[in-house]
Amino acid sequence: GVVSVSLAAASSGFSSVYFERLLKHSKATLWVRNVQLGAFALPAALLTACFQDGAAIRSAGLLSGFTWEAYGVVVLNAAGGLLVAAVIKYADNIVKTFATVISILLSAALSIPIFGLMPTRALLVGLACVSLSVWMYARPGLSGGDAQLGGTKKHETSGPTTPVDESGSPQDRGVDRETVVELHSSARSPTNVRPR
Fold it and tell me: Could you tell me the pTM of the whole model?
């Protein structure tokens, strides 16, 4: 069991990183990538359905037994897939993993009052570990996560530091940070304040 879980975790991590690379370093849009992934997944899903439920599909049709609840689950899964792709493209796969784990823990927490689930020690430890890891990742200075979750963004140059705006594009090329700080400080000094 441990080997299977370890292999599943490794393959899931590799696929997330590779998918992030495809989305961020490609000229294809997010929608094109989703269609490509769907085109690869559809034949496998159809084969699985034919092998597992072939007789029922032949007798009653492909969508037999679908209720509005089933259609709702399909729509939620499709929307979730689009959200996952958007999070990976515009943030990264680590943020996507945190979101997935937090959603699982939130589902477990909501199951306590709704279904009468009794929380175990493992659930409480998992909740504490995930909460701590999200806090550590989002806290500037402790990890590489400050650029993704609201920390300061830096623009690497070979020369002096160049200020960047929120989009990450350099401002005032050729002006070093000390000059910008001096200009900003002198602009706010009382001698430079004009009366209204």
Answer: 0.54
